[in-house]
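Listing S7. Sequence submitted for prediction.
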Amino acid sequence: MGKKKSGGRIAGRGRRSGARSDSRSEKQSVNREVQEQRQRERLLASFDGVPPDGLVLCQFGSHAETFLADGSQPMCLLTPKVHKLFGVCAGDWVWTERGATDQEHIIVGRSARRNELRRKRGEEDRVGHVIAANVDLMAITTALQEPPLRTGALDRYLVLASVLGIEAMVVLTKLDQTPEEDPGWQALQPYREIGVQIVATSSETGAGLEELRSHLAGRVTVFAGHSGVGKSSLCQALGLEGAPEIGEMSRSGGRVRGRHKTSIARLLPLPRGGWVVDTPGVRAIGLVDLTRGDVPVHFPEFSSFAASCGFGDCLHLSEGECAVRAAVSDGLIPAARYQSYQRLIASLED
């Protein structure tokens, strides 16, 4: 019995020791975050009243290609402090200093971001990887054929833009390959009804490109869409300097989809002013920091009906007296949009 009690006390001490260790580790992590935040604030305060002089075009590890006020585009080195405390990505505004020579520049500070566009690397990724910042417009690029229109992906991009407070529009590509009787035209009608701007284009014929240019002028636009929808072709047709190489289509497994050609996000200058962020094609779109309860507000067609639901926190799934589900049954809300909503809700944790 004595041995058992002794063993129990030892095990108990082990558990208590482990708990104390976890507590210390958590406290150290919090203290480190507080210290780093203070360091960030002190660094930013040193630039108070001084406008940033550089715009990051593309980031490569500890270096970033940067557009400077004098029109040059040098590869700038990030100081260890900036690399650790801030990090940079395409679209970031930064402060730079001259290096050892006139040709060398060092990024010594990064301005606060208005927004961040993140991409999840997998289902286990809860934070996401920042691929672009300070975006004004999300141009959701899609085709009706080759690859076929995926309204579920389109809906997730629209929710992402809404979460970030970024204006969104749909850019339809490959118009020359899309017959008037294609059912995809009808599938796009619900988006017009909720006020989403849709511009149909063809990189081959030039159709719709002038209208698209008018929307992009003077703004930072991110092109978002699955591989193969024609983002790279569109960039070349718009006359973007350094437009990415056009990829081939893959038809393996009976599915039509694009091969990845864009490997990193890059800011490309528009001939008439403004910038376009060409991003890597993403087949799995991840939404970060979005809870189930937040989703309904990002489906604007729900709002006028949701006010009549029997419960103030109604998720419009199986609750009684749900006016949104009734509107779907009555054809007042498109069934396809509601189904996308259900899938999105199901993909999020409580």
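Caption to Listing S7: primary sequence and predicted structure tokens for the chain studied. The CA atoms of residues 51 and 239 lie 30 Å apart. The first helix runs from residue 2 to 45.
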